[in-house]
Amino acid sequence: MKWGGGIFWCEQQKEAKHTCSNAPSTVLGVKLYRLTKDARYLEKAKETYAWTKKHLCDPDDHLYWDNINLKGDISKDKYAYNSGQMIQAGVLLYEETGDKQYLRDAQQTAAGTDAFFRTKADKKDPAVKVHKDMAWFNVILFRGLKALYKVDKNPMYVDAMADNAVHAWESYRDENGLLGRDWSGHNEEQYKWLLDNACLIELFAEI
Q1: Does pLDDT of 1 surpass 60?
Q2: Cβ atoms within 10 A of the Cβ of 181, count?
Q3: CA-wise closest residue to 75 among 19, 10, 141
Q4: For residues 47 and 45, what is the distance between their CA atoms, to the nearest angstrom?
Q5: Where are the domains of the chain?
Q6: Which residues form a coiled coil (predicted)?
Q7: pLDDT digits (tens, 9 = 90+) for 153-181
Q8: Across all residues in the chain, what is the average pLDDT?
Q9: Where are any strands of DSSP class E within the chain?
Q10: Would you identify the CATH topology of the domain 16-206?
């Protein structure tokens, strides 16, 4: 496993390889290819994507686990940003290669994120299901969902995320106009993170 490909999360320690170091590298590789037309970037992006899918994709729901260590032990935590970046990576690779498997991968993972993450009942309206992960995790997921929407024109997942964010913004801001990390309204957090509010600038600009 030590020499099995993929990108380490921390080059100084080299203890594990994470989705969050490999998926963004795939996205970057495709973008660099688009800018430079240097095929090496595209080939590396394809290689990194394939490694991540092989080692860190849950075959049951097509979501991505967090990391795998050098012994081959997998940390099976699932975070919205990991799957979001792999959705975006799949869409970009589909656009550049025309290989529909990348698009199918992205669609399957998007469906998995909706089933797994959009499950928390809203405080004011329990019938409304809210994305349960932290706000800035959700916004990274949204990048992938929007990239997918631009290709397959299915608005379901982007609409759900946008509706969640707008509802939270209109319903749960504090006296300073800030939101916590929980969009469902259940957790009244005394202190707010800049990350969980700054990320909304990106999301609202994108919708």
Answers
A1: no
A2: 17
A3: 19
A4: 5
A5: 16-206
A6: none
A7: 999 999 999 999 999 999 999 999 999 99
A8: 95
A9: 16-18, 65-69, 74-78, 118-121, 129-131
A10: Glycosyltransferase (1.50.10)
